[in-house]
Amino acid sequence: MTALILGTRGSRLALAQAESCAERLCTAGFEVDIQTIKTTSDRHPDKPLGVIDQRDVFTRQLDEAVLSGEVDLAVHSLKDVPTEVPEDISLAAISERVDPSDVLVSERVWDVDGLPDGAVVATSSLRRRSQLLHRRPDLRIVEIRGNVDTRIRKMREGQADALVLARAGLERLGLSVPHTVIPKDILLPAVGQGALAVAMREDHPLLERVRQVLNHERTELAVLAERAMLRTLEGGCRIPVGASAVVEGGKIRLQGVVASTDGALQYRSEAEGGEPEEVGGRVARDLLEQGAAVILDEIRRVRS
To answer: Annotated active-site positions, please?
Structure first.
């Protein structure tokens, strides 16, 4: 059997994601050893992501391990992967996407419109914050960090009335918690949400074999369009941008959104076509022309 060392973060969700990839590789004849690596995010578990403000906060140390040869491949949540990956790194495979929707977790099983006036909703995502406030400007959005179990516990302890999570995370962990799915006309997901990315050295001799086992072509086309949109916007993981692409009948249909952090302004666009880079670029340019450039420039100015 051909041996591979697979790098991953050590959270329960990250390990579940890594194990799903490892299982498929083992079925295809590989022997896989999983190695956990701490990332910048893991080393600062209580610091808000906006303060850390690094596009590779979840991925840098894993990619460094790939480049050094410490591991053969690393499994990332694709939504955490910057649009510009490190030199000599290749996203060798994109896994089949599970539902990319966000969900609202609450003991009362509220939907967004049913939340009480002034309800406290927990999320550390500017994307979620901005779109929720556009729909419900009365909500009080609070920062929350930690793995999925920790965030649910903090909500149940009374730190928030509700919590926003990715549906994919709940499914991969097999968690049964009261929740409602947030429609995409209220909250578009993060670029790449629901898919996993496998990072390898471009010159790794087993790259093509790993790609054959793990890559899902339709998902790859969809997320390439989303990432092209984000790249054209010159945005990273820490800006209020959402996207959702589907591939049907050989066509890619992409929706994109940019919203101000207070939710007062929101710009949406949609396009369809056969080439992911072209479709993503077209949606991004339309968003910028509508006024999204002002929002993004203000965020960059504040951070600089």
So the answer is: 80
